[in-house]
Specification:
This protein folds into 3 domains: 130 residues, Rossmann fold; 121 residues, Serine Threonine Protein Phosphatase 5, Tetratricopeptide repeat (Alpha Horseshoe), CATH 1.25.40.80; 122 residues, DNA Cyclobutane Dipyrimidine Photolyase, subunit A, domain 3 (Orthogonal Bundle). With 426 residues, it is of the alpha/beta class. The chain binds flavin-adenine dinucleotide. The site of flavin-adenine dinucleotide has 29 residues, from helix 8, helix 10, helix 13 and helix 15. Flavin-adenine dinucleotide binds next to helix 8, helix 10, helix 13 and helix 15.
Length: 426
């Protein structure tokens, strides 16, 4: 009875349901595939994965391989399509069960289906939801049809009726005999078709990928600096690492589970302080879950021009708007500063993201999907659900029925009153 864990964006050993279940088998191996399709160009003209996220991903895989090795589990890494590699591995290692965490967006489903078709019927593909704060079985709605259209209704019901599950411990070590002789290599940025680069010293995200680094950041933000005790007051900041948690990239790659963050938050509230600020991190993690459930319910509509509201607006696509927006050459200095930050670092604050997205979709009235696709390419913390659902929301085709537009000048006055942020980037 041998098992294989197909890692995707659950790059951790603690609180990993697939790994825990797989370790109940006699022998277990791990596999990660850098899927070549993730390194090609999209129909919007951008590389699907740019160098910032690819670097973070490589680091996360390296750390995962080391952590698994400490449990006597080998991680085999390939630059190939999963459906081409995994069937061979299952035959060679006599695998009967493959464990994988569930994804439901179209590209992920297509890969899953291709793999299912390539596997013999004797091999089971066992999927489980593992990147939510509130597990789907613990939601206070019996079907997704009942999912509230607006966030506040979702949050209130979840806060009242749902519980966050306790994180699972990392598995106990397997016997040494479980380790394979077989060695594989993590592809370099160059092999992935990307350029090596030096980190911009101005970056607000000076961190590396990997579970250990995510846990170190959690420890630093909660226990060493106690930044969490001021989170609500600082979260709209623009400069430096301290203004917000910066958990997003570890969450997006599954190096940290939201339940681990929640458990630490509760501990902090018991041992240090419980206030509006500590609550607000929980609030934001519920936003993250809300968008995951919106995506689970609406499927491919989140990528469509009319969004989940099926709204028809007159979207522009002509001229050099896109180039000017990307390069920070628009008439709005605040937008320009944020777009330059993204281009040079792969990161942008939440305040910045809201402003540049509103400018693109609501002020310039350009096809919002180009903005979302550019973010997909560039963001270190790209997460399909958070990105496309936030973009829909700000473009008036998602969960905000008020169809708002940001006043960019006013936003710059409030959040960058001395122009310090704009000076840093312009
Ligand atoms: P914190 O303020 O410390 O928040 C803690 C955590 O809460 C975040 O790590 C994130 O997991 C969650 N969170 C906070 N705000 C949101 C939100 N608006 N929506 C969903 N989750 C949230 N976040 C991503 O992780 N990946 C994306 O691809 C992404 N694209 C975005 C695109 C647009 C247009 C906008 C407006 C927002 C996007 N966000 C995305 C949400 C948010 O901007 C980032 O999660 C946040 O800025 C990351 O920094 P942080 O971890 O320090 O956040």
């Amino acid at each position: 009875m041998n098992s294989l864990v197909w890692f995707k964006n659950d790059l951790r050993i603690a609180d990993n349901l697939s790994l825990s279940k797989a370790c109940e088998h006699t022998n277990t191996i791990g596999v990660y595939c850098f899927d070549p399709r993730q390194f090609t160009h999209t129909t919007f003209g951008f590389k699907k994965t740019e160098r910032y996220r690819a670097k973070f991903l490589r680091e996360s895989i390296k750390v995962l391989a080391e952590a698994l090795r400490s449990k006597n589990i080998s991680l085999l890494v390939y630059f190939a399509k999963p459906e081409e590699v995994i069937p061979h591995l299952t035959a060679f290692h006599k695998i009967d069960s493959i464990y994988v965490h569930s994804e439901w967006t179209s590209e992920e489903l297509a890969v899953n289906n291709a793999l299912k078709n390539a596997l013999p019927s004797s091999v089971a593909l066992i999927e489980s939801h593992d990147n939510f704060l509130f597990h789907p079985q613990d939601l206070p709605f019996s079907t997704l049809e009942e999912l509230p259209k607006v966030f506040t209704a979702f949050r209130k019901k979840c806060e009242k009726y749902s519980k966050v599950r306790i994180p699972l411990a990392a598995p106990v070590p397997k016997p040494k005999s479980n380790l394979l002789d077989q060695k594989t290599k993590i592809p370099s940025l160059k092999e992935l078709g990307l350029d090596e680069f030096e980190q911009d010293p101005r970056t607000a995200f000076p961190f590396q990928g990997g579970e250990a680094m995510g846990l170190a950041r959690l420890n630093n933000y909660f226990w060493e600096t106690k930044g969490i005790a001021q989170y609500k007051k600082t979260r709209n900041g623009l400069i430096g690492a301290a203004y917000s948690s910066k958990f997003s990239a570890w969450l997006a790659n599954g190096c940290l589970s939201p339940r681990t963050i929640y458990a630490s938050l509760k501990e902090f509230e018991t041992e240090v302080i419980k206030n509006q600020d500590t609550y607000w991190l929980y609030f934001e993690l519920i936003w993250r879950d809300f968008f995951r459930y919106v995506s689970l319910k609406h499927g491919n509509s989140i990528f469509k021009l009319g969004g989940i509201l099926e709204r028809n607006y007159d979207w522009g696509r002509e001229g050099d708007h896109l180039e000017k927006w990307i390069n920070g050459n628009t008439p709005k200095r605040f937008v320009n500063a944020n777009m330059k930050e993204l281009k040079h670092t792969g990161f942008m604050s939440n305040r910045g993201r809201q402003n540049v997205a509103s400018f693109w979709a609501k002020e310039q009235k350009q096809d919002w999907r180009f903005g979302a696709a550019y973010f997909e390419s560039m963001l270190i913390d790209y997460d399909v659900h958070s990105n496309w659902c936030n973009w829909m929301y700000l473009s008036g085709v998602g969960n905000d029925h008020r169809d708002r537009k940001f006043n960019i000048e006013r936003q710059a006055e409030i959040y960058d009153p001395e122009g310090e942020y704009q000076k840093q980037w312009l």
